[in-house]
């Protein structure tokens, strides 16, 4: 009797060496070859074949050589009794003499006992069929068929999901600015790190009227795909609203209504939107986002909430607030993934550490200060993977039209 632990170790070894690249068919051809090589002598299986469902039939796609194809049926109807048996059971040993010719060319005298398993992706179906020698153990073959089926289906679906998540991540990255804007008299840099493939943090810049730069940062509740879907709607809604020169308050109220009607599992968003004028005037609205802060020498000023987080209530009341950015001052926007990162002792990094870190390093460029914050917070969390999405935007007001080096 084949040892189950040994079998699963070998299956893991096979799957660990490959991934699905261009087509699942190529993946399965490799699997058939490896299964025959590693398990054929022990289980008395050989002559692996692959049938792919095309419409109402299963069509032979391997072997491709003419000699091999002459030995087997090239088309097996989906409605045939033999296929219905495997459709119901997902694996089947055709040891009934009535099925000896199920997968063989009926014009040839050869007969066989076949063992088959059903493999599928979200949009395709295959049969993997093996010929068995006259000496075989039902328990061993059943273990083999079902274990291979489970492992292959899991791998195919996992890779499909991973590919979809990678595409979602690319879409989300496309929503974030590729580089900070050039705004005379200001040094700007930003960075965002998702805890998963996609996340709920976002930031954006807006070129408003001449001499005014718009900046936004937000955080959808939760993280992962549900949060990312909501982020997409908010980013697009902001861009449409602000580029049409609508009032910020009106745009946020409309966004709040959209989020309220959302059916996503995550349905609220903290959001900060500011308008920076070239001479340092900053008008902003803060809908429940962790308060950004301005460091100006020994003074640190918080840009507190001016309304509640979007999505909680059908109607919200947001007011506009103001602060002046003096020359050499630094504005820092952040998400809670920065200040809530925990040490080994379960202590949070906290807002006070962040403020002191910025205050002690105001001489750095926006890029270097952003990098320092991320590295310091990452190290504080004993260098494990980020458990929440983390985002930083640093805006320094520099002398006159001076630009960062």
Question: How does this structure look, described?
Answer:
This protein is α+β, with helices and mostly antiparallel strands and 405 residues long. Helix content is 36%, strand content 26%. The chain has two domains: 4-169, 2-Layer Sandwich (Beta-Lactamase), CATH 3.30.450.40; 177-397, PPM-type phosphatase domain (Phosphatase 2c, domain 1), CATH 3.60.40. The chain contains ten helices and 16 strands. It has a six-stranded antiparallel β-sheet with strand order 3-2-1-6-5-4, sandwiched between helices. It has a five-stranded antiparallel β-sheet with strand order 7-16-15-12-13. Strand 12 (293-296) and strand 13 form a beta hairpin. The longest helix has 38 residues, at 138-175. The protein is elongated.
Number of strands: 16
State the end-to-end distance. 71 Å
Helix content: 25-40%
H and E order:
HHEEHEHEEEHEEEHHEEEEEEHHHE
CATH architecture of the largest domain: 4-Layer Sandwich
Q: In what order do the strands lie side by side in the largest sheet?
A: 3-2-1-6-5-4
Number of helices: 10
Q: What is the C-level CATH assignment of the largest domain?
A: Alpha Beta
Which regions are unreliable across 5 or more consecutive residues at pLDDT < 50? none
């Amino acid at each position: 009797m084949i040892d189950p632990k040994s079998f699963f170790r070998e299956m893991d070894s096979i799957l660990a060496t490959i991934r699905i690249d261009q087509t699942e068919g190529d993946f399965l051809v490799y699997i058939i070859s490896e299964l025959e090589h590693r398990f054929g002598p022990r289980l008395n299986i050989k002559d692996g074949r692959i049938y792919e469902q095309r419409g109402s039939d299963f069509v032979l796609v391997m072997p491709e050589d003419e000699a091999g194809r002459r030995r087997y049926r090239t088309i097996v109807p989906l409605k045939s009794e033999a296929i219905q048996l495997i459709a119901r059971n997902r694996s089947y040993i055709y040891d009934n003499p009535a099925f000896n010719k199920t997968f063989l060319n009926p014009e040839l005298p050869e007969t066989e006992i076949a063992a088959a398993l059903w493999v599928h992706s979200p949009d395709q179906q295959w049969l993997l069929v093996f010929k068995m020698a006259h000496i075989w153990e039902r328990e061993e073959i059943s273990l083999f068929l079902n274990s291979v089926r489970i492992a292959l289906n899991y791998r195919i679906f996992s890779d499909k999901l991973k590919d979809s998540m990678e595409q979602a991540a690319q879409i989300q990255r496309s929503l974030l600015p590729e580089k900070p804007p050039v705004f005379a008299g200001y040094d700007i840099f930003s960075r965002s790190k998702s805890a998963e493939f996609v996340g709920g943090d976002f930031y954006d810049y807006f070129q408003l009227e001449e001499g005014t730069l718009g900046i936004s940062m937000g955080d959808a509740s939760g993280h992962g795909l549900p949060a990312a879907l909501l982020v997409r709607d908010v980013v697009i809604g902001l861009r449409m609203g602000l580029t049409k020169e609508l009032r910020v308050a009106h745009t946020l109220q409309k966004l709040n209504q959209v989020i309220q009607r959302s059916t996503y599992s995550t349905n609220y968003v903290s959001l900060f939107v500011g308008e920076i004028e070239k001479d340092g005037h900053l008008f902003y609205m803060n809908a429940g986002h962790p308060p950004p802060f301005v460091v100006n020498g020994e003074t640190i000023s918080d840009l507190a909430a001016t309304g509640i987080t979007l999505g909680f209530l059908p109607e919200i009341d947001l007011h506009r607030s103001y602060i002046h950015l003096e020359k050499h001052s630094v504005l820092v926007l952040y998400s809670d993934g920065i200040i809530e990162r925990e040490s080994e002792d379960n202590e949070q990094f906290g807002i006070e550490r962040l403020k002191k870190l910025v205050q002690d390093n105001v001489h750095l460029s926006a890029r270097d200060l952003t990098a320092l914050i991320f590295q310091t917070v990452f190290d504080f969390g004993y260098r494990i993977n980020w458990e929440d999405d983390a985002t930083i935007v640093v805006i320094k007001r520099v002398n006159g039209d001076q630009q960062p080096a």
